[in-house]
Amino acid sequence: MAVLRWGSGWRRRRFAGAAVVLAGLLLVGGAYAAVAPDNAVADQSSKSQLIEEGRKLFAVGCSSCHGLHAEGGTDGEGRIAGPPLIGVGAAAVDFQVGTGRMPAVQPGAQVEQKPRAYTEAETEALAAYVASLAPGPAIPPPQYYDVSQVTDEQLARGGELFRTNCTACHNFAGRGGALPNGRYAPSLMQSSPKHIYEAMLTGPQQMPVFSDQVLYPEDKRAIIAYIVELQQQTDPGGFGLGRLGPVSEGLWGWVVGISLLIAVAIWITAKGVRARRAQHNEE
Question: Which of 22, 100, 122, 157 has the greatest number of beta carbons closer than 10 A?
Fold first, then answer.
C-alpha cells in the first residue's frame, strides 16, 4: 500500500509540473497573440500603402518607357524605350532616381546624372513598388557604407581593390574616363557612399555587377573609404590638372613648355642676328 501511495503521489507531481508548463506556454502565447498581430498588421498596412504610392508615381512618371507594369516598353518604331525593371530590386531604383539619372531626358548611349526629380520619400515609394514585383538587391543599410571608423589597414585594402577593379574605367584618381561607342565612366568625386555601394551592387549601364559573392560587403566598404579619401585630397603642389595622369601633364609640357623653349630660341637667334648686323655696320 505504501508503494502504491508513493507511486500515485509521484504521478500527481509529474502531471502537476506538466500542467504548470502548459499553463505558462498558454499565457505567453496569449500575450503574444494579443500584441503581435496589431504590430504586424500595422507594418503590413504601412508597407502596402508605400507600395501603392510608388505604383501611382510609377504609372505617371515611368510607365511611358518601362511599361505600365515595369515589363519594359518600346517606342513607336519598335525600339526598346526602357528595359524591364522586374527583379532589379530597390537598390537599382534608389541609385537611378536618387542620382537624377531617372527619369531620363531622352534615350542615348549614356544617361547623365542631373538634379533629382523626386524627393527622398517619393524615391523610397518607387523603390518599394519595384521591389514588390520580384526579389532583387535591397537598399543597403547605413552600416554597409559608413566609413567613419575605417582603419588605415582597411583604407589601404580599399586602394588595392580600387586599383584592381575600378581604375580601368574610372581613372586611378576616380575622375572618370572615356569608353567605346560614346559612353564614359563618370567621375566619382561627387558620388555619395550610399550610391557608390548601390552602383557596385546593381551595375548601372555599362558597369559590371560586383555582387556580395564577387566583392564582400567589407570590401565594398573599403573601396568606398578609399574613394572618400580621394574626394578629400588637396593639391599641395598647385594646379592638379584634373588628376588625369600623364596625358594632361604631357599636354601641358608640350603646349606650355615647348612653346616657351621655342620662344626663347627665337629670341636668342634674333638677338644674335642683330649683334652680327651691328658689328658688320661698324666695319
Answer: 157
